[in-house]
Write a structure and sequence with these properties.
With about 375 residues, the chain is of the alpha/beta class. The protein contains 10 helices and 8 strands. The structure holds 2-acetamido-2-deoxy-beta-D-glucopyranose. 2-acetamido-2-deoxy-beta-D-glucopyranose binds next to loops. It comes from Circinella minor.
């Protein structure tokens, strides 16, 4: 122990002597004097490093699935990626349990084991034509929902509306994967999608709730409180961000305020596939129904928004408004993979509130795996 301290102190002294002209060890008071140049030189004799290629999945700083971290919003940062993962730790729009601000970090932590070949989709998205980065989290000001929503809109727009990259004649937005956050974040993200694609996207909304509740229901008293996690799709449809008639909710089962909620939802342009439909239709039948609603895959422009509460709370307990009677994880992954031929331009997983998770991190693993499925399809469909 003593020896170690001695040599590191000596090293500091040696460095000082190199970087300053004085080389005066005495200015360090108790420092032992290092006698001659040969001894100093020895201190810099590094071993030859045999680089290890295997890094275990539990090691390392958490980015999504160990993707490289890129400071995407910094001036001069290269925009040359095909898929960008971002976090939006916004949770000030919830009506029940809080805590989804810790969703992005929990999902990243839950994604540590993901790194390889997706047997069902037939691709390894991490060894493909696609370059993927994790941009970290959008700055989030948690004291003003109005400003925080603007931050999400501005920062996602910045990513999507990038200048043309090498080999492109016009600007092509990267695919965007957003880690929520509560469901309010969907509205600013869809505003950016609208700006990037110049037309409304077909939203496939996996959720136990319709999320088209009118603001009046919540007895709103201010401009800010018009927006919460129960109504992003109400506003989005009204703002013309959602393709009317070819968008849908999948997995619906929560209780409603009254039957007007369904009428409002249909008038806003959505179709509903209920969680219970799985009994009659089966998973293949649900996929078929989704295809019918979407129309031809070659003309599609699909955005997937996955509220983790679409899954049964026995398998995804860590969420703000759990509803029993949901899809199982294997059903959900199967249904998702039914979208492999479509043009998936963006996705999010929202409402992961890790404080309610089990010690086994079930919900975080699930959220990460759902993203992995979609990421694999994004890469597969764009294969050259
Ligand atoms: C969607 O289309 C239907 C039928 O054309 C129309 O009645 C409805 O107003 C539209 N909804 C929105 C939000 O544009």
């Amino acid at each position: 122990m003593r020896k170690t301290i001695f040599s590191s102190l000596a090293l500091v002294g040696a460095l000082a002597s190199v970087s300053t002209a004085h080389g005066d060890y005495e200015e360090y008071g108790q420092m032992p004097i290092v006698s001659g140049p040969s001894e100093i030189t020895n201190l810099f004799e590094r071993p030859i490093l045999e680089k290890d290629t295997y890094v275990p999945s539990f090691a390392g700083i958490s980015t999504f699935a160990h993707l490289p971290y890129r400071q995407c919003w910094e001036e001069g940062s290269a925009d040359d990626y095909d898929i960008a993962v971002i976090g939006a730790p916004y949770d000030i729009g919830v009506t029940f349990r809080t805590g989804a601000r810790f969703g992005p970090s929990a999902i990243r932590e839950g994604s540590k084991r993901i790194k390889g070949y997706n047997m069902e989709v037939g691709i390894n998205p991490f060894r493909s034509w696609a370059s993927m980065v994790d941009c970290g989290d959008v700055p989030f000001e948690p004291f003003s929902s109005e400003h925080a929503m603007k931050q999400i809109e501005d920062y996602t727009k910045y990513l999507l509306l990038r200048p043309p990259q090498i080999g492109e004649s016009e600007s092509k937005p990267p695919r965007l994967i957003t880690l929520g956050g509560d469901h309010t974040i969907l509205l600013p993200v869809l505003r950016s999608m609208r700006a990037a694609y110049n037309k409304p996207v077909q939203v496939i909304h996996f959720d136990s709730h319709v999320d088209t509740w009118a603001p009046e229901i919540y007895n709103v008293k201010s401009q800010q409180s018009k927006y919460n996690h129960g109504n992003p799709l109400y506003h989005a449809a009204k703002e013309g961000l959602v393709a009317n008639g070819t968008s849908m909710h999948v997995g619906i089962r929560s209780s409603l305020y009254d039957e007007d909620d369904v009428a409002r939802d249909i008038a806003l342009g959505f179709n509903i596939i209920k969680a219970n439909d799985i009994f009659k239709l089966g998973v293949d039948g649900i996929v078929e129904r989704m295809h019918e609603i979407l129309g031809p895959a070659e003309d599609s422009l699909v955005y997937l928004s996955i509220d983790i509460d679409v899954i049964d709370p026995s398998m995804a307990p860590a969420t703000g408004t759990p509803e029993t009677g949901g899809f199982l994880t294997r059903e959900m992954r199967y249904i998702l993979r039914g979208l492999k031929d479509y043009n998936l331009v963006g996705m999010d997983v929202v409402e992961v509130a890790p404080a309610y998770d089990t010690q086994a991190q079930l919900t975080s693993f699930l959220a990460a795996d759902l993203i992995y499925e979609v990421m694999s399809m994004m890469v597969k469909s764009g294969e050259q």
